[in-house]
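Data deposition worksheet. Section B asks for the primary sequence of the deposited chain exactly as it was used as input, without tags or linkers unless they were present during the calculation. Section C holds the resulting structure in token form. Section D is free text for depositor observations; keep each observation to a single sentence. Incomplete worksheets are returned to the depositor.
Section A, Depositor: J.P.
Section B:
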Amino acid sequence: MSEKIEEPSHAAEFAVRLQQTLCEIDWPALGLAEETGARVALHTGPLFRIFDAFGFDRCMWGTDWTRAVGLLTYEQGVQAFRVTDRLSDSDRALLMGDTLQRVYNWAPSQA
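Section C:
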């Protein structure tokens, strides 16, 4: 593919389309583990190397969104993590806040 993503805000949309395509591949038929798609689909693998090395109970999602505010919204920055089906609900929960709450012994206030 030689198509270039011109708008950074389209990157999450592209990642979602790519992961949906990769989810359709029969990895075991190719002699690969069922999880292979997850290791490729989300951010092309580098994040999963970190998740594999440290575990979700030692990783926290974060963003430099304030530096990119002119390029994408906060919602667009988090979209790939919220919509992917390549993270289990429990891994997503750890990554998106449960680990932070445990590490810092903090809980959001109840309104």
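Section D:
The chain has five helices and no strands.
The longest helix spans residues 89-103.
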